[in-house]
Write a structure and sequence with these properties.
With about 230 residues, the chain is α/β, with parallel strands linked by helices. It is built from 7 helices and 7 strands. Helix 2 packs across helix 3. About 15% of the residues have low confidence.
Length: about 230
């Protein structure tokens, strides 16, 4: 597989799907009956979402979360996760000092699951999860943005980021790269690969910087532990 080939990466993601641990986690957190309704009727999102914009939900792996945090190390300010799923990246970012940490997710069951994880971790009053369309979210005060979205959405997202991000912001994209922006850093391999883009007013940086050593990547906290 070519390192930055979205089509092949998407095929691998669809084949991976939900593991039994994720299935058990969702079932235990929201009730088996509720999860069955979500899995059958709502996955990967609401039926009104065009097929080309859909991507099957698969929670970020521990390695993916670690890679995101490694590219945000040493930064401060607000963290926004667009399409925050079960909230694990928001929770991990908060624990690493990025505050406020906010997640936006359209699927109501995933929002509920994220809030449950935050409550179990003792962070219910410290992180925020909103059920909201990411296209309606203002990014004008967001200096740290995380996205794990379908490749078909990313060209549209580039326009929103270009129009709204403040100078000095960093965007971290997991699984799939932004199609036309040049990354400042890249970490990981395959589906665990994560790209960082620095925004300097006129647009993202044009020169790629060396990726941090994998030995320096912090261990991501388990979203279900306090």
């Amino acid at each position: 597989m070519e390192p930055d080939d979205p089509a092949e990466a998407l095929t691998e993601l669809r084949q991976r799907g939900l593991g039994w641990v994720e299935l058990l986690q969702a079932a235990a957190g929201s009730g088996l009956a509720v999860y069955a309704v979500w899995a059958l009727l709502l996955q990967p999102g609401f039926r009104r979402v065009p097929l080309r914009l859909q991507v099957p939900y698969a929670g970020a792996s521990a390695r993916q979360v670690e890679n995101v945090l490694s590219l945000l190390r040493g930064r401060s300010g607000k963290l926004v996760d667009l399409g925050s799923g079960d909230g694990r990246i928001v929770l991990a970012a908060h624990r690493c000092g990025l505050r406020p940490a906010v997640g936006y997710e359209l699927n109501p069951w995933l929002v509920g699951l994220a809030r449950l994880h935050a409550w179990k971790a003792g962070c219910a009053g410290s992180v925020c999860y909103h059920r909201e369309d990411l296209w309606k979210v203002s990014l004008r005060d967001c200096y740290n943005v995380s996205v794990f979205l379908a490749p078909s959405v990313l060209p549209l997202l580039e326009g929103k980021l270009q129009a709204e991000l403040p100078e000095g912001a960093r965007v971290v994209s997991g699984r799939f790269p932004l199609p036309t922006w040049q990354p400042a850093a890249v970490v990981g391999e395959g589906l665990d690969r994560v790209w960082a883009y620095d925004f300097h007013g006129g647009g993202p940086g044009e020169q790629a910087a060396p990726a941090p050593s994998s030995a320096s990547v912090p261990r991501a906290p388990d979203p279900q532990t306090g």
